[in-house]
Structures are given as structure tokens and as C-alpha cells.
């Protein structure tokens, strides 16, 4: 009951950000700052002057000029502003303090049509290492910041929006730590361990008002998507789960991004700006997931492009759980749903074992009488996987967490993919 | 700051409440029924324990199963009233719980409206006040599982009931050391496909001890273990689920002293294709009671939708299973069914295409080394049915004039097709698919069956009393396919070389030709949990069932 009152209170004070008002001026006045300066010689780095954690116990109350690294490394602070990540602590969508850089993914996890503002903060003097298939090897001290905002209208993502939550992934000495913050006031976001359920959220998508309950996940849910679990090798195997970021893999970063002064490939830019090392000189050898967003015209894609987009979509939306060992650096680990037998990593070749993509595979757990297999090539309507994407039924929906609405564009893409797959034994 | 520092504040408050209550009415006036009184009583006792560390005698500090809370237990929402939503309190307590914690959920009936996820817990004990004393209602919750434990070590889950989970009741993934005891997972009302899937659901875990649990109404398996090793499932009750108790793709499991009643199938041992742990084995099912498992199959889909209603025990594509001294009564199709995966998918030619990847890892549609002995079978086959069995049922039970055999449905039914095809050399090409050396070493192959591969039945007992005999004139062992390719009376292959179902049968007792063989007994399983061993060679050394 307390929760409800609390929740009412919070819903009443959601921050409405008119991003066109005044805020854009801030970025101009701060243009002498790091993030928008032109690419410089290798000796200097975008995170020069960013500071870094010094190994000391931090304080949430510390007054720092830039990022409060020590608090990030050691403290679970009650307010997002305690970490001093943004120049204007009431606006997590712009102007990171030195060390922070915005980024985007070519194909993104669907979250109820929310707009996502992503920043990576790398401490001064540190760099991420390129890795081929897994999340870039970020140094200790790295902070990944993602803010979720629901636009009034998905056609105008620069227009009015409601900032809902900001999630931090902090790379501490002990591993990655997830800290969820909920924007319960205009000026700051509060640590929200138990999540929040926000009724009556509305966005207009393609002229239709979608009304739904937005779920801010609880802190313990972070592990459901962000961890790989040991495939225990026997009764004496006592390994634990490992927490990992999901999005910033080379294949999803390998796209152009609009920086303040230019548009540039993100990986190249990160390398030039001195926060990424060991990027292959020949960019064509770097895996590249296609750009798929709600404006993609699926009908205009070639069959090969549909396959590629579908695999990228399945990867970013499903493969954090539905993954096996494949390219994981830690032996005998898998995603939490690796045990289901459906493993849909982008770097998995469909033809090698179509069953891994659910083809003709009877669901192990549950299932539904109306669908004969997870994927029935050339019959999307008989495919349980597509149904699970198309329903909000708690029992059947996929992904389990992070959405309360159906991603129609994603459903259309996967339907096109299934209908274009080569016939298999279960194809009618 | 919205997050309270739970434990110290509560202990202080509890002590205060106790003193106040003691002055007014006395702490020990907990009648255990009235929610308000009971909860206040619990509060008071907690205070007493915190004060003098001697709370073990107080009934409100002990679960109905006799588990006494340690003095440093963390009490979740101790003042909650029946009907309160305790989700946030529970999440907060579990989020902060250090290694070795005992987290106590309150006594009464409460609402939980989200999946409770616990990751990397270490020696956590999550307990209520008893299997019927702490009820958690997940009706309308978000998320599919009620509880989900992901990775972790030596976790105890006990003394509470989970009601109406959206999908699974208590799921445990990737944990080494799981003790589930005195828990219930329940879907009330009609047996329907939209009931939850799994009740108690350890998966890809090691050292699993499940005892004194209760599962009802699951549209998949009530008590389930999948892709796991070293498992003891004992003294549980599985009632009115599709599958009562199911062991799937798991190694070293002892399933004993359980009761399975009113399910579609009582006790199942399955190996399904396409899973990380490709196959299981060394499963012993003994001294269980499995009766009247006659619910129509209400699964919404999935592998268990093949289970014929009226099944006492079903072994499906798992090799290395011993079934003994079970009491199997009033199961309307068969007491024991033994089937290769060809029962579900007879498209032998397409196995490499459909299952090649998983066959490489050692999954096999075959079933080998199943030993059934000393089972007591009574009133089996009163109304045999099941989509997959229609032809078989008709073949055995239709009157002779209509082309059937006019027999009671066999009490032990073995498909035999996989063995026949292997013996005929028809599956030899599958040998080339196996790439996993461990699987080859484990004896996974498609060669003709050796003596150690056989399906054997002996000393099983027809326990029908005289009054039942008119309705159950035959208590038979049945083989749908003969297993000897050279057999010509009747022939097992037609002129085109296709196998022919011959629907053989023979009385259960004194079987001289069908399944007349013996096998080596399987070794007992040991579960190691928090440094102690459990099972027939552990804490149950004195258990009579373990000497059978």
C-alpha cells in the first residue's frame, strides 16, 4: 500500500523535458569542453582531465569538479546527481562531464518505444580494448549510462518527452555493478532498488496512442539479462554468475554517429579520441550489425538484408539470455536461457544448426497448443517465437523483462525472416 | 531516502512491541490462526530471540516443519497483515542479504506482484513459517516466474507456498546446492493449459535435494529437475499436474518415497533433444506410489503434451534407468511405459537433419538399459488412451473380431522400435553423427543392443485382487515392436523392409520371452549440500527404501 502512495507521488512529478527550450544553448557554451572538440593527435585523449578513481573510499557527498569516480567505484549513492556525471545534473540526456561520450547502437533493444540516451565514461588514462564478438573490454572505472525517456510522439524524438529512468553499469574492481535510478523529481533521480511500476504511460506511435504500464526493473532484475551463468560441469563446480554489459559490442557500435562537429564511425572515433585500443586497421574486417529502427522499410530490404537485420534484432533483444558458450571468453558459461536450446547470437551461423534458432524445435518449457514449433520456416503464423514477441501475456511474452508493449516493427521483421527461411522438415 | 535499514530497526521495534504486548496480554498468546495475533506474537518472539538468543522453543520462531530461525534472521515485513503486498520488502531484504543469511517471510497470506529474482546467493535460506502458513499469491504479477534463483551456492528454500505464478513457481538456474523443502507450488481450480508450467523447477544445477514439497495444478511438470546432476527427490507429493515428477536430461537422480496422484503421468524420466546437457542417465525411481494418474492432458504445448493420460511412470528416450518397488495403482493406460523418441517422431530418415546437432553431443532417440523389477501393479489399463497411443490401444484392446487382440492394455508397455532398428543395423549411419567423446565413452551408439543395453522386467507383481479380475483379466507386458529382426513368427519387417508393429504381449509375472533379463543395479546418488551428504548413501542410510 505504501508502494502505491509512493508511486502516485512519483507519477505526479515526472519530469517533462522540452528539449528545445534553452537546453541546447548549454552545449554551445560548453563547446570548449572535451566531447565536442575535433579529433586530435594520438597523444591526447578525449578523457584528458576527466580524472580517475584513485582507489580511495568515495563519498556520495563529495564535491567534485568532474565525475565523482571514487563514489562510483565504492558507493551505492542515493541520488544520481551524487556521481556528478552531467554538467546539468537535472538533465541526463546531454552534456556529460569530461570523460563521458555519447554513443548509439545500430540495432537496439526495444523498450516500449522509449528513446535511449547512452554515454560511456572512461577514466582518464584508460582505454577499452577491442574484442571481435563480445562487449568491448572496458577498463575498471568505466561507467555506462543509459537514460530512458518516453517521447510524446515517436515520430518526433526531438520533441517533448518524459524522462523516466537512468541506469548505470559501473565497472568496479569486483566486476560490473548495476545501479538503477528513477526520476522521481524534476531535478534528480533516486536509487530504485525495488523498481517502479508506472501506470498510464502514453506515447503516440504512428498516429495511435499507446497506453501502458511502464516497468522500471528492480535492481535484482538486472542480472536476469546482464549475467552469464556457469554451465556447471559437475557436482564440484562452484562457479558463480558473471555480470556483463550487453550493447557496446563492436558490431553494434560499428556505425556512424552524429558528433557535435561531424558524423563519424563510432569505433574509429573512439580510437581517435583515445578511449579504444586495438581496433583492426581494416574496418571491413570488423563485424557490423545493420541499422534497424522503426523507420526501416522492411519491404524494401533484400532477402539477405532481412536475414541480417533479423539476426541483429534477435541478438540485441534475445541473445543476452539466449546465448551459449559460442564466443564467450569464459569457458562453460552461457546466458540464463542458454539451457532452452535456443541460442540466437549474431555471430552464430543459422545454417550450421537451424535448431539453435528454434527451427522445428518444440519448446522445452511450456509452449502453446496453437504453435507447433518455436520457428516454423515459411510459416510465421505457426511459430511460437513470433507469438511470444507479439503478446503481452506475462506467461508467454518475450523478452520477459523490459517491455509492456509489442514492438510491431520487430514483429514484422521477424515474421519476414521466418517466412523467408529455407524450408525445413516442419515447414508445411 | 526511501530504503529503510531493515534489520536493526525491526529488532528494536520488535523488542519494544514484545514488552508492550507482554504487559498487555503476554507474548506467548499466539494462537497461530488469527493473522493479527499471530503476527504480533511473531514480533514479540523475534524480540526475545534478539535479546537473549534463546528463541528456539518459541513456536513463533519455528516453522511448522520444525526449522528454527537463527538469531540473526532477517524478518521481512513482520507486521504485514493478510492481503498486504510484501513485494518491495522482500526485494529489499534479498537484495542486501549477505552470505549465510536467513530471510524469513511473514506468516499469513500475502500478495507478491513481481518476479522475485535472486542472483549469486551464497548459503541463503529463504523461509516462511510453513508450507500452509506462509502463502504468496502471484495472481496478476508481472514476470513469468514467481521466484527465480540465478547462480549461487547452497541455497535453502523452505516453508512457504507459491500460488498462481504466471508461468513457473520456483525456478533455480545454475546453482550448486539447492535444498527445496516444505514448499508448495499451487495453481488452484480447474486443470487448464493456462495454469503455470513448472512448479518446482531446478535447471542446470548441481546437488539438488527436494523433499516434503507439494505441487498441484501445473500444466507442465509439478516437481521437475532438468539438465542437472546429483539429485535426490524424496517424500514429495505431486497431485494433479500434467507431469507429476519429471527428471529431464539429468544424471544421477534418486526419486523415492514420493506420491504421485491424479496427474496425467505420475513420474517421468525424459531426454529431450536440443539441450545443453544433451542426455541424462543413472536415474533410480523406487518405492514411490503412483496412482490414479488419469487427468486428461491439459498441457498447453511442449514435450509433456505427448504424455498419455493414465500413465504411472513414463521413461522417454533416457537410458540407464532403474524402476523398482513402486506401487502403481489405478492408472488407466499403463503402469509403466518405456518409449524411444521414435514414439514422438517416427521420421527416422530426417533425424540427422532435425536432430543432427544434438545427436553430435550425445542425445539419442534410443532407450537402453531400463530395469523394472519388484513393482507392484494393480488395476492398470481401465481406460487406455492418449493421442500417440491410439493405434496401439486399439490394437491391444479392440475385440478380436474387429482385428484387435481383445486384451487388457499392457501394464508395462515398451515401444521396441528403436531396439529393432538398431538390431537390424538400420541406424548404424547415426554413429557417424556423434562427435562428443564423452558421449561415445558413455556408450552412446546405434549398434545392435548388447546384454547391458536391454530393457528388462522381472519380479514385478500383479496385485489385482479377485474382485478386480473380471475387469482386468490380463496384466501383461506388451511390446509394440518385436526387437529381433530375424524373428519370423510374427515377422518384424514387411516385404519392403519396413518395421511392422506386432503388438506382442505376455503375462507380467513369469514373463519368459518378453523383457526376460536382468541388469546390473544402478549406483545410489549422493547430494552434497553445505558440506553434508544426502540420499541413500548419505543421511538416509537407515531408510528402508534405500535397502531395496
Automatic annotation (TrEMBL), chain A:
PROSITE patterns, alphabetized: PROKAR_LIPOPROTEIN
Organism domain of life: Bacteria
Entry-linked InterPro entries: SO_2930-like_C
Keyword Lipid metabolism (UniProt): no
Signal sequence, start to end: 1-24
Record flagged with keyword Signal: yes
Keywords: Signal
Annotated stretches, region: Disordered: 32-59
Compositional bias ranges of the Low complexity kind: 32-45
Protein name: Cytochrome c domain-containing protein
Organism phylogeny: Bacteria, Pseudomonadati, Pseudomonadota, Gammaproteobacteria, Oceanospirillales
From TrEMBL, chain B:
Taxonomy, superkingdom: Bacteria
Signal sequence interval, chain numbering: none
PROSITE patterns per record: PROKAR_LIPOPROTEIN
Pfam families: Beta_helix
Every Right handed beta helix domain range: 157-270
Name of the protein in its database record: Right handed beta helix domain-containing protein
Amino acid at each position: 500500500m505504501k508502494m502505491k502512495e509512493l508511486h502516485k507521488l512519483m507519477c505526479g512529478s515526472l519530469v517533462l523535458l522540452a528539449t528545445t527550450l534553452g537546453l541546447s544553448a548549454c552545449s554551445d557554451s560548453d563547446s570548449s569542453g572535451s566531447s565536442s572538440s575535433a579529433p586530435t593527435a594520438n597523444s591526447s585523449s578525449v578523457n584528458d582531465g576527466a580524472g580517475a578513481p584513485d582507489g580511495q573510499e568515495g563519498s556520495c557527498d563529495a564535491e567534485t569538479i568532474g565525475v565523482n569516480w571514487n563514489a562510483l567505484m565504492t558507493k551505492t549513492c542515493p541520488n544520481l546527481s551524487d556521481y556528478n556525471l552531467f554538467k546539468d545534473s537535472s538533465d541526463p540526456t546531454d552534456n556529460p562531464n569530461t570523460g563521458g561520450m555519447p554513443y548509439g547502437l545500430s540495432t537496439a533493444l526495444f523498450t516500449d518505444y522509449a528513446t535511449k540516451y547512452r554515454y560511456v565514461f572512461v577514466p582518464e588514462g584508460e582505454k577499452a580494448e577491442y574484442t571481435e564478438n563480445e562487449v568491448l573490454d572496458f577498463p575498471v572505472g568505466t561507467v555506462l549510462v543509459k537514460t530512458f525517456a518516453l517521447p510524446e510522439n515517436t515520430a518526433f524524438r526531438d520533441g517533448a518527452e518524459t524522462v523516466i529512468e537512468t541506469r548505470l553499469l559501473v565497472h568496479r574492481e569486483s566486476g560490473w555493478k548495476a545501479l538503477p535510478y528513477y526520476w522521481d523529481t524534476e531535478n534528480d533521480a533516486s536509487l530504485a532498488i525495488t523498481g517502479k511500476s508506472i501506470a498510464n504511460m502514453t506515447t503516440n506511435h504512428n498516429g495511435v496512442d499507446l497506453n501502458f504500464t511502464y516497468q522500471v526493473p528492480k535492481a535484482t532484475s538486472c542480472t536476469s539479462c546482464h549475467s552469464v551463468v556457469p554451465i556447471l560441469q559437475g557436482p564440484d563446480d562452484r562457479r558463480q554468475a558473471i555480470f556483463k554489459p550487453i550493447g557496446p559490442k563492436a558490431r553494434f557500435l560499428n556505425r556512424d554517429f552524429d558528433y557535435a562537429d561531424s558524423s563519424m564511425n563510432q569505433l574509429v572515433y573512439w580510437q581517435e579520441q583515445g578511449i579504444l585500443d586495438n581496433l583492426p586497421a581494416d574496418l571491413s574486417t570488423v563485424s557490423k550489425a545493420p541499422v534497424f529502427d522503426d523507420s526501416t522499410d522492411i519491404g524494401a530490404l533484400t532477402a539477405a538484408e532481412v536475414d541480417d537485420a533479423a539476426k541483429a534484432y534477435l541478438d540485441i533483444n534475445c541473445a543476452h539470455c539466449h546465448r551459449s558458450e559460442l564466443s564467450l571468453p569464459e569457458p562453460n558459461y552461457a546466458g540464463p536461457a542458454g539451457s532452452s536450446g535456443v541460442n540466437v547470437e549474431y555471430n552464430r551461423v543459422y545454417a550450421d544448426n537451424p535448431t539453435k534458432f528454434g527451427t522445428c524445435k518444440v519448446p522445452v518449457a511450456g509452449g502453446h497448443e496453437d504453435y507447433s514449433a518455436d520457428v516454423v520456416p515459411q510459416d510465421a503464423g505457426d511459430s511460437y517465437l513470433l507469438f511470444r514477441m507479439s503478446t503481452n501475456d506475462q506467461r508467454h511474452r518475450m523478452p520477459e523483462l523490459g517491455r509492456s508493449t509489442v514492438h510491431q516493427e520487430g514483429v514484422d521483421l521477424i515474421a519476414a525472416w521466418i517466412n523467408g527461411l529455407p524450408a525445413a522438415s516442419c515447414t508445411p | 531516502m526511501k530504503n529503510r535499514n531493515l534489520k536493526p530497526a525491526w529488532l528494536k521495534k520488535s523488542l519494544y512491541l514484545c514488552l508492550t504486548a507482554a504487559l498487555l496480554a503476554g507474548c506467548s498468546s499466539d494462537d497461530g490462526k488469527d493473522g493479527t495475533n499471530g503476527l504480533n506474537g511473531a514480533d514479540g518472539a523475534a524480540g526475545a530471540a534478539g535479546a537473549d538468543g534463546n528463541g528456539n522453543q518459541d513456536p513463533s520462531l519455528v516453522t511448522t516443519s520444525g526449522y528454527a530461525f537463527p538469531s540473526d534472521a532477517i524478518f521481512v515485513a513482520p507486521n504485514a497483515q493478510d492481503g498486504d503486498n510484501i513485494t518491495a520488502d522482500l526485494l529489499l531484504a534479498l537484495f542486501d542479504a549477505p552470505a549465510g543469511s536467513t530471510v524469513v517471510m511473514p506468516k499469513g497470506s500475502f500478495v507478491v506482484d513481481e518476479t522475485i529474482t535472486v542472483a549469486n546467493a551464497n548459503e541463503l535460506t529463504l523461509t516462511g513459517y510453513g508450507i500452509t502458513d506462509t502463502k504468496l499469491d502471484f495472481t496478476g504479477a508481472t514476470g513469468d516466474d514467481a521466484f527465480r534463483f540465478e547462480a549461487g551456492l547452497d541455497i535453502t528454500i523452505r516453508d512457504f507456498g507459491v500460488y498462481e505464478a504466471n508461468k513457473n513457481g520456483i525456478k533455480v538456474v545454475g546453482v550448486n546446492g539447492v535444498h527445496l523443502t516444505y514448499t508448495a507450488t499451487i495453481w488452484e481450480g480447474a486443470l487448464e493449459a493456462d495454469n503455470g508450467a513448472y512448479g518446482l523447477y531446478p535447471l542446470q544445477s548441481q546437488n539438488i535435494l527436494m523433499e516434503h514439497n507439494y505441487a498441484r495444478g501445473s500444466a507442465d511438470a509439478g516437481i521437475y529437475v532438468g539438465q542437472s546432476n546429483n539429485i535426490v527427490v524424496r517424500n514429495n507429493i505431486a497431485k494433479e499436474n500434467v507431469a507429476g515428477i519429471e527428471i529431464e536430461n539429468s544424471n544421477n537422480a534418486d526419486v523415492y518415497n514420493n506420491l504421485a496422484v491424479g496427474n496425467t503421468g505420475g513420474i517421468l524420466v525424459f531426454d529431450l533433444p536440443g539441450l545443453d546437457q544433451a542426455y541424462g542417465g543413472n536415474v533410480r525411481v523406487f518405492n514411490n506410489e503412483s496412482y490414479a494418474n488419469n487427468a486428461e492432458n491439459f498441457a498447453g504445448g511442449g514435450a509433456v503434451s505427448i504424455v498419455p493420460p493414465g500413465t504411472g511412470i513414463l521413461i522417454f528416450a533416457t537410458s540407464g534407468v532403474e524402476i523398482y518397488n513402486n506401487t502403481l495403482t489405478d492408472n488407466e493406460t499403463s503402469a509403466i511405459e518405456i518409449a524411444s523418441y521414435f514414439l514422438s517422431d517416427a521420421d527416422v530418415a530426417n533425424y540427422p537433419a532435425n536432430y543432427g546437432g544434438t545427436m553430435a553431443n550425445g542425445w539419442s532417440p534410443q532407450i537402453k538399459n531400463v530395469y523394472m523389477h519388484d513393482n507392484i501393479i494393480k488395476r492398470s489399463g481401465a481406460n487406455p488412451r492418449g493421442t500417440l497411443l491410439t493405434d496401439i490401444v486399439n490394437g491391444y484392446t479392440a475385440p478380436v473380431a474387429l482385428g484387435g487382440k481383445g486384451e487388457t492394455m499392457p501394464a508395462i508397455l515398451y515401444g521396441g522400435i528403436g531396439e529393432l532398428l538398431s538390431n537390424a543395423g538400420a541406424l548404424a549411419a547415426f554413429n557417424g553423427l556423434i562427435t562428443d567423446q564423452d558421449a561415445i565413452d558413455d556408450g552412446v551408439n546405434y549398434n545392435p543392443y548388447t546384454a547391458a543395453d536391454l530393457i528388462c522386467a522381472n519380479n514385478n507383481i500383479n496385485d489385482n485382487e479377485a474382485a478386480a479380475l473380471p475387469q482386468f483379466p490380463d496384466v501383461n507386458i506388451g511390446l509394440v515392436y518385436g526387437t529381433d529382426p530375424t524373428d519370423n513368427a510374427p515377422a518384424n519387417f514387411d516385404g519392403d523392409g519396413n518395421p511392422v508393429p506386432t503388438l506382442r504381449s505376455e503375462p507380467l509375472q513369469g514373463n519368459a520371452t518378453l523383457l526376460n533379463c536382468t541388469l546390473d543395479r544402478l549406483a545410489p546418488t549422493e547430494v552434497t549440500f553445505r558440506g553434508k551428504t544426502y540420499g541413500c548413501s548419505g543421511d538416509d542410510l537407515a531408510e528402508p527404501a534405500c535397502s531395496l
